[in-house]
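Justification of computing resources. Each target in the renewal requires a structure prediction run like the one illustrated here; the chain below, 419 residues long, is used simply to show the kind of job we budget for.
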Amino acid sequence: MQQLKNISMIIFSTLLGGVASYLYHPIMSHYLSILDFARFESLAGMFTILATITAGFSLYLTRAFSHEDREQMRQLYLSSERVFAIMGIGIYCIYLPCIWWIDSLLLIGSPLMVALIGLIIPISFFAIAPGSWLQWRGNFWFLSLYSILTSFGKLLFGWILVLIWFGIFGAIGGFIIAALVATLTIVVWIDRSIRWDRRTILLTHTQVIGLFYERRLELFHFFLLAFLLALFQNLDLILVNRLLDPAIAGKYALVSVMMKFVIFIALSVETVYYPRLSHPNWTRPDLAASVSLLITGSIVGYILFRFAGVYVLTAINPVFSEYQGLIPYFYAFCILFVWVSFWMKIAVAQGIYVVNIVSLIVGAMLLLYLHNQTMMTPELYIRSFMVTLMIVLIFSIIAVVNVLRRSDSRSHSIRHSRQ
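Resulting structure tokens:
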């Protein structure tokens, strides 16, 4: 019952925040030209990629908290918070010399925009420790508040900046300011509610880095997992200017962004269950409950989409009426991605790293295929991503199920030998 309550809370906040977040894109499409909107969506996809660079550390830290007692957890939280803040600033300094190459690759036309969107790197690194702590503690109320603050903050700040003639810079600034305000809010709340004295930190920066270094293989695969998932989710937006006709690219980007709202709703199940499924003593009932919820959500989502989704989307923006044939592809893409994310995270959390390697190879093949294309139709473009996700999903399920069977066989053999 408590799990259902947590899931309901996360879904509600996702819906509420998602409404604000996704209204942001059609609002920006109203104030920006089609070409500027395509550039904005390409940068927004890059924003998500950069933000999820830290997701691997976050997944790892959430799992690490489950192995520590309260005092060790306190030390790990306070020390890692400082280490990640310094790390984020350092990585941003490394990122800055690359902005001209990135600008040329994505055809943005402004290295300054690329530099501005990169500010999400230090902000996201600073948010790793508090976000992981809230998820591990099961404080889903404040996680929900954080999601809402980020979404409505982005809508408010971005809209104000665009209105006062900052144009596409204002649209990007809304992302950065909202992320900063929301992150500072949860850091202050944790400090005041837990009453931790930062002057009593016992772990040095060297010790924290040493702890991460000892588990470098595990940390590397969590990082690789986060990168691959971000790539699969956002690559179509990042490359949209290169592979679709300029007259179509902006409209495709709007349809893609609006449809991917399905992903954020569905991933709420992972937010609640991930700490349990990443635990060394995870159980079949936990896995079965999560899979059941995903199946139910996929079926209900399809029914709602089938009978009402297209009409609602068309009412939001007339662009959808021109691309109704694409919408079923996007829905299938979103559901495939949710299932891929679920099984890949379980696999990596349980040390099944071969899933990452296979996904990396499949992703590289997708990039090679797209690199050899010039101009593609929207249908062919989205189908190439769907095929990639299907291959990764099948392999991930087989890998996890195979490990479960081996574990059951070992347990059965141990019980049999004791008898």
